[in-house]
Design goal:
Elements: H1 3-11, H2 21-30, E1 32-36, E2 41-43, E3 51-57, E4 60-64, E5 67-72, E6 77-78, E7 92-95, E8 99-105, H3 106-115, H4 117-140
Antiparallel strand pairs: 1-8, 2-7, 3-6, 3-8, 4-5, 4-7
Helix pairs in contact: 1-2, 3-4
Length: about 140
């Protein structure tokens, strides 16, 4: 997958939605591509979170307490909040096909946040939007 396509995918991630194209290019360039074989875990429930993953190719199943709660496919992402809060993962994500993912580690992310003020602002705006949407959802309940 080309960097331009990765930037477009990142634009759809709420945490990165308000970032500039230049900042997203930096994230795409410094993200680590990794391969996960079918049947292997991308993240495991209960383990500390320390990276964000975006599926560049492939599919995965999400399970919480052993129960299937979702599926991921190309362009989907998981773990974005682990970049801000390394709390234990609340689900296990297992590759159902061979997966190629873009990983942004907490360490790499902290360097980007330090060096790219636009990324900081964009992420805060994206996070605020996500919280606002959740607040509206809760108000309806």
């Amino acid at each position: 997958m080309r960097q331009r396509e990765i930037v477009e995918f990142l634009r759809g991630v709420p945490l990165f939605a308000e970032c500039s194209v230049r900042d997203l290019q930096t994230v795409a360039r410094h993200g680590e591509r990794l391969r996960v074989d079918a049947g292997q875990h991308l993240v495991a429930e209960g383990n500390p979170g320390s990276a964000f993953y975006m599926l560049l190719e492939g599919e995965a199943v999400v399970r919480r307490n052993g129960r299937k709660v979702g599926e991921l496919t190309t362009g989907d992402f998981v773990g974005e909040l682990a970049l801000l809060d390394p709390a234990p993962r609340n689900a296990t994500v297992t590759a159902s096909t061979d997966v190629v993912a873009l990983a942004v580690t907490e360490r790499m992310f902290n360097v980007m946040i330090r060096d790219l003020p636009g990324l900081r602002r964009g992420m805060l705006t994206g996070l605020a939007g996500r919280l606002r949407a959740l607040d509206r959802q809760l108000a309806v309940l």
